[in-house]
Amino acid sequence: MDSLVIEGGFPLHGTVRVSGAKNAALPILCASLLTDGACTFRNVPRLRDVETMAALLRFMGAETVVEPPQVQVAGASVRRPEAPYELVKKMRASVLVLGPLVARHGRAKVSLPGGCAIGARPIDQHLKGLEAMGAKITLEHGYVLAECARLKGASIQLDMATVTGTENLMMAAALAKGRTQLVGAAKEPEVEELARVLNKMGARVDGAGTDIIHIEGVDTLHGVDHAIIPDRIEAGTFMIAAATAGGDVLVEGAVPEHVEPFSGRMRTAGVEVTREEGGLRVRSPGARGLRAIDITTAPHPGFPTDMQAQFMALMTLAQGASVVTESVFENRFMHVPELNRMGANIEVRGRVAIVNGVDGLSSAAVMATDLRASACLVIAGLVATGQTEVLRVYHLDRGYEAIEAKLAPLGARIRRVRAAT
Ligand code: EPU
Prior knowledge:
The protein is an alpha/beta fold.
């Protein structure tokens, strides 16, 4: 697998452009299964996860052409409403085909995703919602089998604000007979974006972005042409990179309202974040000006769990001790031992990490088995003295479009070392 080699200690200056949002693109690609009309999606990021989703759509029979930043799904003529283990194990978001398949094809066979590096991540809420809409669900040989000639609208109370669960049920309800009410829905910008696309396709979704979503089912949906919103987590990763490495960076395409849950915390920590035409500008206060602050991850509009690792990299150099609480996933601190190997002083007690600020980080060979943990290590590498090698960048490539090609023009000394084939 490729690795990234980073020479630390060079501040970042200039402008970086954010790509389309991974976690919006993945459900939106699945929404194409709800219609036989042609779908064109623009501003789709060039990512391994997008390739995996396209491979899954093709496996099922949908003609899918990926020409980043554009993806076309030409009239999803699904012959095989199935998501095999080989693809689902590469990417959990594959489970997002479940709702659309049952809604439009009356049946689906989708591999259970199982646990992953950050937690057990069950899909009981997805299944409970589909059952409430009349689907017969059976679990067999590691697969979910769901069947229903026509789903019926239902009132569904989610036990937690699950993002992909809300998306799956919203897509299923779009073609159900009658009205569905999702209570306790996730409010993430990506959920709102999916609702926008569904409505453009002829669906009647109301209330996305709040915790109660109403969906009035329709008989058919048509094709769509849609440009995907910028990736708030990629934006945040560059914002934290600039704040940690030092310097002054304009993050072009960052949507202020989407990043507010962490940009507000960055300001409290002493980082200057200002709105500019087309994006957000981040000026680092330097390590001496960085205050340790506490954060607790929570569903939107709380502090996003997908920014926790990157924020922790920033806090390693702050003045004082910061308490980082991970309340969304049970095991999302795998970056901690690696940061400590780089000279950080972090102690983990269950779901809480205490980050005692240090004067500097030093380079090491590091790796992580989670996307955001890997991003955190790249950020640490940008400020550490010496040469850091981030191994197994496979995970980074799942969610960041050419991260080294975006950081290098800002002044980062970063290069990819290709694995020998
Ligand atoms: N949960 C259940 N039962 C369910 C569904 C979720 O117990 O049926 C639990 C999960 O185990 C977790 C919590 O609820 O503890 C929240 O999980 P959620 O379902 O919201 O996560 P997800 O939909 O699987 C999406 C993102 C993740 C992001 C989380 C939280 C996509 C494709 N993935 O996952 O993104 O961390 O929401 O915001 O949208 C990433 O991009 O690095 C990433 C992991």
